[in-house]
Amino acid sequence: MTTIAIETWGGATDETSLTASFARQPILNRDGMLCGYEIKVCPPELPLTPGEEADQRGSHSGGDTHLDPHPDALPGRAPTPPQRVARAIVRGLVQNDVRGALTGHPAYVAVSRDLLLDDAILRLPAERFMLELPPSLEADDELIARLVYLHGRRYRFVLDDVTQPNETFAKLLPYAEVVKIAITRAPRALLPKLASVLKSAGKLLLASGVDAQADFDMAHGLGFDRFQGYYFARAQSSATRRVSTPRHALLNLLQLLAGDPTVAQLEAELKLSPVLVMHLMKLANSSGLAVGHRVTTLRDAINATGTDRIARWTQLLLYADGRKVALEDDPLLQLAASRARFMELAIERMPEAGRDEADAAFLTGVFSFVDAVFGGSLEKTLNILTLSRPIQAAILHREGTLGLLLSAVEALECAAWERIATLCERLQPLTVDDIAQMGLAAGAWAGVADRSAQGLERIED
After folding, report:
1. Contact status, residue 371 vs residue 378, Cβ threshold 8 Å
2. pTM for the full model?
3. What's the Cα-to-Cα distance from 312 to each of 81, 146, 344, 360, 457, rounded to whole Å?
4. Angle formed by the axes of helices 245-257 and 307-317, to 10°?
5. CA distance linking residue 441 with residue 35, whole number of Å
6. Which of 70, 275, 319, 399 could form a disulfide with 336 if both were Cys (CB 3.0 to 4.6 A apart)?
């Protein structure tokens, strides 16, 4: 969420403040690693201008609805309502909270005709944004000329939500670098030929709506380059994330940490896994926790790090891919960390929430799709982790405040704005804008490449 004070580009200032909300959805490459995010926009609502109110009154009364052109439409005057919305969105997209949530990856964002034709779009850094052209766009001479101009300014375009070629598709294709195909809605028999022709033309192919492993496998086999969807967070994809020996060691460590262990008990458990010892020593020495001296023993590392930080480090590392991949590019770990941080931030905004509630919220988020790692029954895995009954009820049945917040972050991940608004009625004082803002903040927190200060280092299989 970003609150924007709208400026007219004619020099005058509109004092109205508008609020646009943003959510991000991951885009993965052929290796299953993060390579971008689509920014989903919930545009601000504008109050009716006097002219629009008169127009509505005329239409309701059945009288003559013909009005002189609104002053906003005249050259050199205030922007039209669609322009104001477009400029509000641009202002929001260049704010720090959106930039932080992108974690260095490019942003894919849908653009309207009004935004394309308005010079406000030039405020978007061309190297950071991919502009998605919706299928409803009218590809007339004015628009094509504008695309040519923007292309000369190094802006890149994506043909969005393609199901099958049509006249608009043919007119816009020469200016697109990426073609996004809705693979679950496109005719299945058409996909091989369409993919082959577009690849031969040098286009990058992005498959959207990839929520099942079978969809990913099919699109991958057809040569698609990018994938958007949550197939990687489903239990059926667990075969790609083997339950390795270090992951079993992490699970055993979590069980011990749940019982408030002594330093001696932690030391004994950690010594069973040299990989864990190595990473904990690195964590303690790189995070600034060992003030004034270098940590040289495991006991010192435990004392310097603290059981709370060790616990969070261990919880998140359950999701780390076994390959040697940068943590900020690991989609499942990023999703788990973002969801956990969102839950923690959100519960802190609720009445009478304290440290215990914040810890429970973090745990609810981080373990809400642990079956994607271990497969099998989610309930059985949660029992092994000895999570409290309210946490299990929230994850399994979406019960209680934790369950409502978990439903809210799931809706945010899908940019289901109406669903979020409905949930906020039961999560007062939280609003849709609050939910969106905390989602961006959580994404930025999760995506920091150098997480040593937060206690996160890689465990390699």
Report:
1. yes
2. 0.83
3. 47, 50, 12, 12, 11
4. 140
5. 19
6. 319
CA–CA distance, 460 with 423 (Å, rounded to integer)? 39
Placement of tokens 């460590």 in the chain? 253
CB 182 within 8 A of CB 174: no
Structural tokens at position 206: 């992005």
Rounded Cα–Cα distance for residues 106 and 170 (Å): 26
Tokens of 211: 């929520």
Bond from prior residue into 429 cis (ω within 30 degrees of 0): yes
Tell me the C-alpha distance between 211 and 209, whole Å.
Answer: 6
Contact 367/383 with Cβ under 8 angstroms?
no
Confidence band for 461, pLDDT divided at 50, 70 and 90? very low
- The answer to whether residues 84 and 6 touch, using CB atoms and an 8 Å cutoff, is yes
Model confidence at 58: pLDDT above 70: no
Q: Cα dist. 428→230, 363, 400, 421, 431 in Å?
A: 29, 22, 14, 11, 7
Domains of the chain (ranges; CATH) run 2-232 (3.20.20.450), 233-461 (1.10.3210)
- Give residue-wise pLDDT tens across range 78-125: 778 888 899 999 999 999 999 999 999 999 999 999 999 999 999 999
Give residue 455's pLDDT.
Answer: 37
| Interatomic CA distance for residues 268 and 335, integer angstroms | 31
Q: Please report, for residues 243, 424, 435, the alpha-carbon distance to residue 412 in angstroms, rounded to integers and kept in the order given.
A: 29, 12, 8
Contact 162, 180 (CB under 8 A): yes
